[in-house]
Design brief:
homodimer; alpha/beta; six-stranded mixed sheet; five-stranded mixed sheet; 11 strands
Chain lengths: 336, 336
């Protein structure tokens, strides 16, 4: 197999480009079959290449003199900021010089750019954003959490198939359990969309559909793929983040309450930190935008080296397993 | 004002009827302007009336020889189990012998019974279930979390008004902030339903509409009333419950991990328990089903005396403030 080339947008995140370059250096050290194209400030990036001893033959800089910030209107920014680090990185995928792209920038712009610049793969009707969310003992793919709302039943069926292929190939889950998020466990429960989707999912022979999942069961590892419409997924994902932060803050506040609790905290802090860290998983890469002609991965705005390096590994696995080809084949043969 | 009569279904909960009778005894001791009608097993209830020294002139038993369990199909059960404790309690409201009804039974049956037996108040198009969810420093009314999904914009506008009236009268919040749950904060974000609802909410002069709320901000006390369609609300509510349980379990597990953490736990346990207890608030009553001809309050299946007593107080406040009349007036004068 030819070398894998991954484009990395080094601007747009909250932490500047140094963590990103450090993550790239780590991934290149770990995998000798990947090369990287970085978009961003040439001067700055050159200095970091030297600083982190990155092999010059495995990295190329594409200079960007614009950045899409979190304040930019996504679609507008993608159209107008042609020299932004994000647009340049996505262009590399579009032109086939890279097979995947990673960005920690404006989420809406990444979603819009994925669709408008990279474009949908053959047969794919919608391109869902599908982050892994931590559960008690593992994690589940929540598909779709993007901005493309009001999906149709046929879209949800495609999400189920794409999610299933992703979990099998990237996370190594055999015969992934696919559930649909619902307000009850019986097939007759749900809104019009869910009720119309359930029989279609039962008919799919290429997925392991386990039925409706009530959201209170999500933490209990009841499914590997959680199918939902983007509005619901987006709301769930952000609520998870908000509630997690709140609980963490409350626990931290309690530990600092008195001399007694501070003493207690000293004894448990290390273990408690480890416990909470699992829920901020940065070793799973980023959220893939699936069903595009290449792979686009959105990582957090505050990503550090570890998440960048994990995302590079995620892209590499995606390409080695030829996941896009599998997705296209599923839609050619399948009912969707 | 005449005495307030509240019907209480004493069957259908997980803990039997003793906690319920204990809660009733507490509430009757606290408020001398309420009377109670209890539906359930006459023999058992008579013994508990004696045990808890309940004044016989303030309580009446209506014997029920059937119970709607959590395994019953809601609508069917309401139709067929005419002698169930829930149907009998709802009948008391329908016939005007009680102004409110409390049940810890089958949620779906309570919702269905509220609509079919008690019936909607004049002008109300949908009757939302609106629990209070705890936030960092207070709580917000999440309206609608019921089972009546696929609402229309006009329904959401009514939810906003009912929620606002409820928070002002029951929780004493002046000029309650009403937000709509959305996937972004800008007015042009959202699904078709939310986008169509936002301009209608802006037009409402009788509510304090603060715009779109992203779910990650929900814990930060950004609104007193959180308007959403029932599918979204139901999924959020149950997810909150599931995630809360998971975090609590993880923290508990960590504290038991080693001798060192057990020592630490001994020092912080009391404060940590208090911190978590706030999120299992049982002093706020139950979830009201709004917009009916009377009030129906759903309390948790595992409710103990404190939640029962709080729910009785909640019903009392609702009736004293004549909330239903205010709701009907809002819909007569208003745009909805």
């Amino acid at each position: 197999m030819d070398k894998i080339t991954i484009a990395v947008d080094t601007m747009g995140g909250d932490n500047g480009c140094e963590y990103i370059m450090q993550g790239i250096s780590e991934a290149l050290g770990k995998f000798d079959d990947i090369n990287v194209l970085v978009t961003g400030n040439k001067e700055e990036l050159s200095l970091l290449i030297t600083k982190y001893n990155i092999d010059n033959s495995r990295i190329n800089i594409i200079h960007a003199d614009e950045v899409i910030t979190c304040h930019d209107a996504p679609v507008d920014a993608i159209r107008k900021k042609k020299n932004s680090s994000l647009v340049l990185a996505l262009n590399e995928v579009k032109e086939g010089r890279a097979q995947a792209c990673i960005s920690s920038g404006n989420s809406g712009a990444i979603l819009a750019g994925g669709q408008f610049i990279v474009g949908r793969a053959k047969g794919v009707k919608r391109t869902p954003l599908a982050p892994l969310i931590p559960t008690k003992t593992s994690s589940s793919l929540l598909i779709d959490c993007g901005a493309n709302v009001d999906a149709k039943p046929e879209n949800l069926v495609q999400f189920a198939k794409m999610g299933s292929i992703y979990m099998e190939n990237i996370e190594g889950v055999k015969n992934p359990r696919v559930g649909i998020i619902n307000i009850g466990t019986e097939d007759e429960k749900g809104n019009a969309l869910v009720k119309a989707t359930i029989p279609l999912l039962h008919e799919c022979k290429d997925i392991n559909f386990v039925g409706s999942i009530e959201s209170r069961e999500i933490p209990n590892d009841v499914a590997d793929v959680l199918v939902c419409e983007a509005f619901v997924g987006n709301v769930l994902l952000k609520f998870y983040e908000g509630v997690g932060k709140m609980f963490l803050g409350e626990v931290k506040g309690t530990l600092k309450k008195s001399i007694k609790t501070k003493l207690g905290a000293a004894l448990i802090y290390k273990d408690l930190k480890k416990c909470f860290k699992r829920f901020m998983a940065d070793d799973k890469g980023g959220a893939p935008l699936l069903g595009l002609k290449g792979l686009v991965v959105k990582i957090h705005g505050n990503s550090k080296n570890r998440e960048v390096s994990s995302a590079l590994e995620q892209c590499r696995t995606f390409i080695i397993h030829d996941v896009n080809k599998k997705i296209i084949q599923a839609f050619e043969n399948g009912e969707a």
